[in-house]
Design goal:
Strand content: under 5%
Number of helices: 4
Order of helices and strands: HHHH
Radius of gyration: 15 Å
Shape: elongated
Helix content: over 70%
Length: 121
């Protein structure tokens, strides 16, 4: 299994690719879809740096950031499910949903791995 820091950096690359692709899918909100994935990628870069340091305090801060990201991404997944039922916003749901699921699962796996590592030490 990949180390959490490298998995976070892989998610950053996915979000960077999304910031290039999403404005072409939703051209009416070009600025939003360019900068929103990059704004979500910033905490992932911070957690990757924190997890590479191997400090216990840095790990706790990274856990808090991942817990907040899992909660927010879960809410975005629920929002995108509701947006799928609205014909006018189905494109927004398609752009928001898959990255939110990816980030939510990344945060859940990272929290699980770090909790196991903390229980062993």
């Amino acid at each position: 299994m990949m180390r959490p820091a490298f998995r976070d950096l892989l998610c950053v690359l996915v979000l960077a690719a999304l910031s290039v692709v999403a404005p072409r899918l939703e051209p009416s909100y070009r600025e939003l879809w360019t900068f929103l994935p990059l704004a979500v990628a910033a905490p992932l870069v911070v957690t990757a740096i924190l997890l590479l340091s191997r400090s216990r305090a840095a790990t706790i801060v990274a856990l808090v950031i991942h817990a907040a990201m899992a909660l927010c991404c879960g809410l975005v997944v629920v929002l995108s499910i509701f947006l799928l039922f609205t014909i006018l916003f189905a494109g927004t749901a398609v752009v928001l949903g898959p990255p939110a699921v990816l980030l939510m699962l990344n945060s859940a796996v990272t929290i699980g791995q770090l909790a196991k590592r903390g229980a062993r030490s």
